[in-house]
Design goal:
The protein is of the alpha+beta class. The chain folds into two domains: 13-66; 87-153, no CATH class. Helices cover 40% and strands 17% of the residues. It has a two-stranded antiparallel sheet. The longest helix has 18 residues, at 136-153. The relative contact order is 0.10.
């Protein structure tokens, strides 16, 4: 039978609670102790004569959180594929954004006789032809920027 060596460390819970109380300047009493996964959870309760101050308890709860479990949410970026389109010019639009103006939009929107709805449909079809899935905001963005560029060019 193989030999096994165990090291046992016993620390009184009151000693742990006292060190946490001093570190975070808590006036509360130890109310409950339990284990959640790999964490030892100490719950402190205020004495009945004192009021509850959220600012005092917050640092103690942040110590118990596992920093490895924090995950950042991945957000999908709203990028339009413009590969292969020639840049006709660059402007700063009315909202203060730096914009590139692309040749397909200029060619399609130079016709002054188009209605707003026809212009919108042309911009949407150009974006879709380059395998984009345009939202209303992106259609509006390319349409307005191209129209601003054409007004400035005249």
């Amino acid at each position: 039978m193989p030999e096994e060596v165990l090291t046992i460390v016993k620390i009184p819970l009151l000693e742990i609670a006292e060190s946490i109380r001093e570190k975070h300047t808590l006036l509360a009493e130890l109310a409950d102790v339990h284990i959640e996964g790999d964490n030892l959870v100490l719950s402190f309760k205020e004495a009945e004569s004192e009021t509850l101050d959220v600012g005092e308890i917050q640092p103690a709860s942040s110590v118990l959180q596992n920093p490895q479990r924090k995950r950042r949410l991945r957000r999908k970026r709203n990028r339009m594929k413009t590969r292969g389109w020639a840049v006709v010019g660059r402007i700063v639009n009315s909202k203060g954004q730096k914009c590139s103006i692309y040749k397909p939009f200029v060619d399609a929107l130079q016709n002054q006789e188009l209605t707003e709805e026809e212009q919108r449909k042309k911009v949407e079809s150009i974006l879709k032809s380059n395998k984009n899935k345009p939202t209303e905001e992106s259609i509006e963005y390319f349409l307005n920027n191209t129209l601003e560029f054409l007004k400035g060019a005249n």
